Amino acid sequence: MPMAPALSAKVALALALALLAPGFAHANAGPDRAAVQALVQQCEGKEDFSDPAPPARLPGDTYYVGTCTVSVLLVTSPQGHVLVDAATEEAAPSILANVRALGFDPADIRWIVTSHEHFDHVGGLAALVKATGAKVALSAPAAAVLATGKADPADSQYGDLKAYAITPVQADRIITAGSVVRAGPLRLTASFTPGHTTGSTSWTWQSCAGKRCRTVSYIDSISALAAPPYRFSDHPEVTARFRRTFAAITARRCGLLVTPHPSASALFERMLGKQALAPASACRRYAKAGRDRLDALLIKEAAK
User: Fold this and answer.
1) pTM of the prediction?
2) Is the pLDDT of residue 22 over 50?
3) What is the average per-residue pLDDT within 163-176?
4) Residue 187 contacts by C-beta under 8 Å, 6 or more apart in sequence?
């Protein structure tokens, strides 16, 4: 597999300073702004799903280990860790390198959970399972798709996604709404947020440093995207599913919001202190953006 490109001297220095106390030794419950700054600098102008990014700590025992444009989170404990999402197959080596750079052993990852069944979020799943020995927890719709290694023909983006096959993965556990995935003291609770795909799943947990904890909500993508000839106007059941998800997310108090694409929720800007880290309106605003996008698309389809 390809190696991640070398960091620039400036980025490497910033990352080294940020990682002076790796693993469980951190005492600060807030985001590691030096590491985030190194991430932002390395990722400037990068748009590919697989572009490697250095790791950075979110509040508590949760870390960003994904790419420049695709979130992957490592939630840690002394009794084992959970990885949230898997990015692309090409990104798997850099994700594993990030886990090691933080002072953790990939073999201590007990579970991998996912957001939705698109190649940019689960393409690396098989490689990460092989490298870590972790078990996989999936929603039933996502498990059915990932077992085939092919895109779902009913997916609104199938016209584009059908070009991207992934290595098939079998679920070790089928989750339902409210299911809890455990590793040591960690408790990640699943909720279903279908729309972007039928298997879309969101996750919530407590990220702690000592006795100081903060709720983290990894809310799945809720953007209405269609590849021709798909039209949402022809699928009222999918539109209704989206609207139920928007309503459910609007009602949530999500704490620190993280999304599968960090730009969708200005994650890096919030971790740098340029915006409020966890505003009470975060989930409400995220749901509104999804609703507005769907409404605009339906208007556009009607005009044609």
Assistant:
1) 0.91
2) no
3) 97
4) 180, 181, 205, 206
Structure tokens, 239: 């539109």
Q: Given pLDDT bands bounded at 50, 70 and 90, which one contains residue 29?
A: low
Looking at 118, 155, 220, 286, which residue is catalytic? 118
Give the side-chain half-sphere CA count within 13 A for 107: 0
Q: Active site includes 230?
A: yes
Q: Compute the CA torsion angle 282, 283, 285, 291 (nearest 10 deg).
A: 160
User: Percent of the chain at pLDDT above 70?
Assistant: 90
Cis, peptide link before residue 229, omega less than 30° from 0: yes
CA dist 287 and 301 (Å) reads 21
All domains in the chain, ordered by first residue: 9-303 (3.60.15.10)
Concatenate the DSSP letters of all residues of 15-51 into one string.
Answer: HHHHTSS-GGG----S--HHHHHHHHHHHTT---TT-
155 a catalytic residue? no
Is 120 considered catalytic here? yes
Q: Is-catalytic flag, 121?
A: yes
The rounded radius of gyration (Å) of the Cα atoms in the chain is 18
